[in-house]
Amino acid sequence: MVKAKVWILKKHFEGFPKESNFELKEVDLPELQDGDVLVEAIYFSLDPYMRSLSKMFLKEGDVQYGTQLAKVLKSKDPEFPEGCYVVADCGWRTHTVTKAKGPRGPILTRIVSEWPTDIPMSLALGSLGMPGLTALYGLEEVCKIQPGQTVLVSAAAGTVGTVVGQICKIKGCKVVGSAGGDDKVAYLKELGFDQAFNYKTVPSLEEALKNASPEGYDCYFESVGGPMFTAALKNMKPGGRIAVCGAIATYNDTTPQMCPYPHHEIIVRSLTIQGFMVTNYKEKDEESVKRLLTWMKEGKLKTKEMVTVGFDKLPIAFMKMLKGDGLGKAIVKV
Ligand SMILES: NC(=O)C1=CN([C@@H]2O[C@H](COP(=O)(O)OP(=O)(O)OC[C@H]3O[C@@H](n4cnc5c(N)ncnc54)[C@H](OP(=O)(O)O)[C@@H]3O)[C@@H](O)[C@H]2O)C=CC1
Ligand SMILES: CCCCC/C=C\CC(=O)/C=C/C=C/C=C/[C@@H](O)CCCC(=O)O
Predict the structure, then answer these.
(1) C-alpha angle with apex 139: 228 to 240, nearest 5 degrees?
(2) Which ligand places an atom closest to the C-alpha of 96?
(3) Interface pTM, i.e. ipTM
């Protein structure tokens, strides 16, 4: 009988997550039935949604949810043969017996057959996976960017933000990024951002945005919320578009942040503000991953990973990711 280590969400998060929110257990896995697959986790992805959507999807005592890159060890589903690699929404479990689809949609997605041997498969959790697709859809489907436009992106040194900036350059836009460290600002410039600033040290966000693009912004790729959103509104060009992707500066709040009513700026600038979920565009994923892979092979899309080793380190690595500590996509290697 196969045993699995699992991390349980023992207590729902209140404020910033703590190690005591989680509990490590060992469980026995069932024998495979028709349509079942046994997968073994290789890498885990740590993503902000695991904090922001936790209460929506989990109850106390459930296995902590999250995405992993896994290898199929045994299979009773011909579409997922033994030895193939999958992105698996199986949660924090070393081994899982699962069907390919669940009540919320696909659980297993095969790595595209064109995956080059010299590109690490862990990137299927980062720039070449869900976060990379988020960047692509936010720019193409929501902002509908055009060459020559100026795009602002917050959380720019994060996984989504770095891909946003590089796609903007591929598509002939000017791009300005905000990030929370001088090392991060230097990295954004290395990636080709036209302007970047440290939102933690500039005297005024509004002035920093004005200095970076005195003519204003056609598009804002919003990932943080809070005062940055207010400052961005005041710097949008008339007819500007805002893709609301996330609000990471608010996820750990215990009381909601108050901000000035945004109506004046939205109305006088005739802004369009649209929220989106990466999952809205699922049918485009396969083709989109191939486009991201092509850009990477051409050297137009670069990425960094921050790898922590050890299944037991998942809670610590999760908290580090939420704080924005370190540079690169947060990954745990089993
Ligand atoms: N709508 C959708 O479908 C999706 C939305 N998202 C959202 O996109 C955003 C970025 O995700 P992703 O790039 O994968 O995450 P990463 O973990 O790669 O990066 C997150 C970034 O957020 C920054 N950050 C953390 N706390 C704050 C804060 N208080 N204020 C401002 N910035 C902060 C960190 O850097 P620093 O502060 O140092 O700059 C860090 O670089 C998140 O808001 C996430 O929820 C992601 C995927 C899908
Ligand atoms: C002010 C509150 C804002 C809430 C923000 C919510 C979400 C933003 C975000 O980060 C969304 C991420 C979506 C990720 C989707 C991932 C799927 O590929 C996997 C889902 C895992 C599962 O269903 O088990």
Answers:
(1) 55
(2) 2
(3) 0.97
